[in-house]
Specification:
This protein has 110 residues and is mostly beta strands. Helices cover 0% and strands 50% of the residues. It has strands spanning 4-7, 10-12, 18-24, 33-38, 45-50, 56-58, 66-71, 76-81, 90-96, 99-100, 104-108.
Length: 110
């Protein structure tokens, strides 16, 4: 089972940017991978996904602002988040198959 570790979260003002990283302990080239988020009192939701070959998919709420990518040589997945809004505040988790990271907090506030 792949071990996943997220990093890159933090506090940012509205309109700002953050880049999240998800480092995997094993090869991820052939896996479907995704970023999810969970805000207080809400269910975990899919933010973006990427599959072998590089095809991506995004939640409507983040389209045009977030970009998911993967560096197979580094076994790392990224989520570039631009034009952040207060409603993007959540704990962000990376997922690969049955494996989940521990989550990284993203807070968007002035």
């Amino acid at each position: 089972q792949v071990q996943l570790v997220e990093s890159g979260g933090g506090l940012v003002q509205p309109g700002g940017s953050l880049r999240l990283s998800c480092a995997a302990s094993g090869r991820i080239f052939s896996y479907f991978m995704a970023w999810y988020r969970q805000a207080p009192g809400k269910q975990r939701e899919l933010v973006a996904s990427i599959i072998n070959g590089g095809m991506t998919n995004y939640a409507d709420a983040v389209k045009g602002r977030f970009t998911i990518s993967r560096d197979t040589a580094k076994n790392t997945m990224y989520l570039q988040m631009n034009s952040l809004k207060p409603e993007d505040t959540a704990v962000y988790y990376c997922n690969c198959g049955l494996s989940w990271g521990q989550g990284t907090q993203v807070t968007v506030s002035s």
